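Hello forum,

I keep getting stuck at the same step: I have a sequence, I want structure tokens, and every attempt I make locally crashes halfway through. Rather than fight my setup again tonight, could one of you with a working pipeline run this one for me? It's a single chain of 111 residues.
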Amino acid sequence: MILGVIQRFPGGHWTNEGKTMKGINDTIKAFMQHYAEEFKDSEVLLVLEKESIESENEANSVLNFLDSMCKKVQEDMESGVVVLNQKVHTTDAEKVCDVVEDYIEGLGYEF
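Reply #2:
Ran it on my machine without issues. Output:
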């Protein structure tokens, strides 16, 4: 994952209308919800509740969350932690990151 300042790219969408997270698999959102609750990350929890990212600040918060989540998943995997009724693996976090980063790019943000 590449972290940095997010900016709208030229020709990107200037409105997020119709661009929600509703098309993202429920398991991916539940996985994010688990770690957002564990981190007590109110901004990511709000994004998940409304199922959309509506600002650059929210996009940056989600990307920073994904980075922290990946690090925690690595620790959890080594400890045999169960998330969503199965032992967690780094591939789970990688899939979440791929899907959510694609969503953010689809909104017109580059990072």
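Residues 23-110 form one domain. If your local run keeps crashing, start a new thread with the error log.
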